[in-house]
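Q: I have two molecules that I believe assemble together. Could you output structure tokens for the complex as a whole instead of separate predictions?
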Amino acid sequence: GAVVSQHPSRVICKSGTSVKIECRSLDFQATTMFWYRQFPKKSLMLMATSNEGSKATYEQGVEKDKFLINHASLTLSTLTVTSAHPEDSSFYICSAIVSWATNEKLFFGSGTQLSVL
Amino acid sequence: QQPVQSPQAVILREGEDAVINCSSSKALYSVHWYRQKHGEAPVFLMILLKGGEQKGHDKISASFNEKKQQSSLYLTASQLSYSGTYFCGTPGGGADGLTFGKGTHLIIQP
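A: Yes, here they are, computed for all two components at once.
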């Protein structure tokens, strides 16, 4: 089945540094990928929709200059948290949509736990 | 608009049944159900598209009411492996992105 690989699984960084998270679709092409953020014991909050070859679509309240998304190929989307601060600490999960007939489902990456000191 | 899930948490003994509800004030195009275990990514369970639809596999099934404003997930004869947080997701966030409910924490005790 379809697999989405996310890397790194965990990152600890100092405040003010930038962190890049990669999301790859391993055996299928994903023209659209989604980035979610999840706080402990909370729901997944959609941050942005990553579109291959074009600009990402950000949800209301998400700073596009802080969370840079690049979808340069059909199998890779990256999320860069720029000038990270402790409040950016969270679990970030990417996902890709697979559609068949009138059905569709999301395959999620394994997530990245970001801790900003 | 975030769908509303209930209950927030359920504690069951192995073998008992559970029902998790997901509702919206507007008719939905579809409802997705996912299960997430602690520290792991969510895993797709099923999608419902049609009003009145019911589907399932093994002892996990779901329904979508005729008005397409409410879906329920049924866990029958629960097993320890069913423990986790269940999320319903509905389209409406971004381009096909799902908006998820707050989740229902399910704890199965031996």
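A: One point stands out. The mean pLDDT of chain B is 89.
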